[in-house]
Design a protein that fits this description.
Layout (H helix, E strand, L loop, with lengths): L10 E4 L2 E4 L10 H5 L2 E3 L2 E6 L4 E5 L1 H14 L8 H15 L5 E9 L13 E9 L10 E9 L16 H13 L4 E5 L5 E4 L3 E6 L2 E4 L10 H12 L4 E3 L4 H6 L2 E6 L3 E8 L2 E2 L7 H14 L10 E3 L11
């Protein structure tokens, strides 16, 4: 969960400079607020207490995806991916966090006027770091339902982009699930195939194979999704990307979610039907344990995923 802390003195990057959170404001009529015309990324930073280092995970991959999302909404990032990586490392060094964090880079339409459009509207960009522990309670399996809400289709708005306005779809599904006594929801595509969770990709295991919906099912092509597939490939686990029927979830040996915020979270039941024996299955466990080592720089095979923050950097001040 996000730590409940006063963010007023946290250093953010906004308007092309570093400033305090309480000095970075947007107006009530800001286009991105009124119409959901923005896109964002979620990036995790993992604190290594022994090395006293903050490791930023898949930084380049996230900014490359943000670049694509911005393009879809007729926006242009104000910096190259390499520049964004440097700015992000600098931002973390200025805050000198000694805990896990979550970074929220966002670009949005910044005009303060009335009018639904994407053209002829100026952009604004910001990066906000937040102390973070976990998004879902992974100490136990998740009770999950199939949502009555369908995943937004590409003919309506492109779900492969992390568009702010599209997340009302996720919010409706999540709150419906919680109101009905579940921890999380799985949304189906317009034609009834498994898409994804409210903010996570879905994997299932059956007969030793790993299955996940392919991109044509209107899923966000998650960075953590790809990381888990890379880990699975390193173990020689066969991965199948295809459309998945709802009934296949009920027949699965294991099911788990992946996501930047969620990490890896196993599902104990779908629609009150137990998944396997309800506990973390052997393949899910192997993938999860390897991922946890990788994000904290404890597995040299995946060291290229990490960007260090504090190495050889003095503490900086706001400029």
């Amino acid at each position: 969960m996000f730590n409940t802390v006063d963010l007023s003195s946290t250093i953010v990057y906004a308007g092309g400079s570093f400033r305090r959170y309480d000095e970075a404001k947007v107006g009530l009529l800001t286009h991105g607020l009124q119409y959901g015309t923005g896109c964002f990324e979620g990036i995790r930073g993992y604190w290594g207490a022994q090395e006293r280092e903050l490791y930023l995970l898949l930084l380049r991959e996230h900014y490359q995806r943000l670049e694509i999302s911005a393009k879809i909404l007729l926006m242009t990032l104000p910096h190259s991916v390499d520049e964004l990586i440097e700015i992000t490392v600098d931002l973390c060094a200025r805050n000198r966090f000694e805990s896990d964090i979550y970074l929220r880079p966002c670009i949005f339409k910044a005009a303060e006027d009335i009018g639904v459009r994407l053209h002829n509207v100026p952009d604004a960009f910001a990066i906000i770091p937040v102390p973070f522990t976990s998004y879902l309670d992974t100490s136990k399996g998740l009770e999950v339902c199939i949502s009555s809400w369908r995943r937004a289709d590409d003919t309506m708005a492109p779900p492969r982009a992390k568009i702010t306005g599209l997340y009302v779809n996720s919010a409706l599904a999540k709150s419906e699930a919680v109101a009905n006594g579940y921890d999380e929801a799985i949304l189906l595509s317009h034609d009834g195939h498994v898409a994804e969770g409210s903010a996570e990709n879905v994997f299932l295991v059956r007969n030793g194979k790993l299955y996940t919906p392919d991109p044509s099912q209107n899923v966000l092509e998650g960075c953590t999704r790809r990381a888990i597939m890379t880990i699975a490939e390193s173990f020689g686990i066969e991965i199948v990307e295809r459309s998945i029927d709802r009934g296949e979830l009920y027949a699965a040996d294991e099911i788990f979610f992946t996501g930047t915020a969620a990490g890896i979270a196993h599902v104990s039941a779908i629609d009150r039907r137990r998944v396997g024996d309800g506990t973390l299955g052997p393949i899910s466990r192997k993938l999860s344990e390897t991922y946890q080592r990788a994000v904290r720089n404890e597995d040299p095979a995946f060291r290229s995923w990490l960007t260090t923050t504090y190495a050889s950097r003095p503490k900086a001040s706001v400029s």
